[in-house]
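A quick aside before the break. I want you to see a complete sequence-to-structure record at least once, exactly as it would be stored in a machine-readable document. Don't worry about memorizing anything.
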Amino acid sequence: MTTKSLKLALAVAGALLAPGANAAVYNFVQTGFDDGATISGSFTVNDANNSGQINVGSANFGMNFNEISAFSLSFSGNSIVAAFTHNLADLSAMVYNLGSSYLGDEIDGAQQELIATNYFGTTGFDYYSGMGFGGFGGAVFDKASNATSYSYNLVSVTPAAVPLPGAVWLFGSVLAGLVGMKKRKA
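That is the input. The structure line, written in tokens, reads:
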């Protein structure tokens, strides 16, 4: 293998292995609602301003959505509030300090940690949790029946496992083949 092809191979490897602009996927869960109900979901964020805090939300909160690209939330339902799901379009606000195991326990930083979905909606369900909403664990609210189910537990957050992309495995196979061909010629 020539020096030129080795440099090209290393450049391609670097491009394939480079991190995706600090994008990170997190899973979250909140237990402790009536009848054993839970909130669970995930979000994909990018700390665009390198503040160590994800701060996203609707214009009603004076925020924007620069630092989040995906969001999902599911409530399992109980005898008080029916099951529901929310996505990025339903997210009203989220403030999360990166590296924290919990969302809603911190009062440091630019803003208090919180999460809220469908907060300004007039129908359906809304969810809110964290120090920014009075310090209790969380609540789900059925806007049709005015029923609320509470949890005094914090939202637990864990980074999601990130699998290696298929391109990395393919590149490794090609590189091994090139090394094998070089040894065969020698």
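Two observations worth writing down. The longest helix spans residues 166-185. Helices lie at 3-17, 166-185. We'll return to this after the break.
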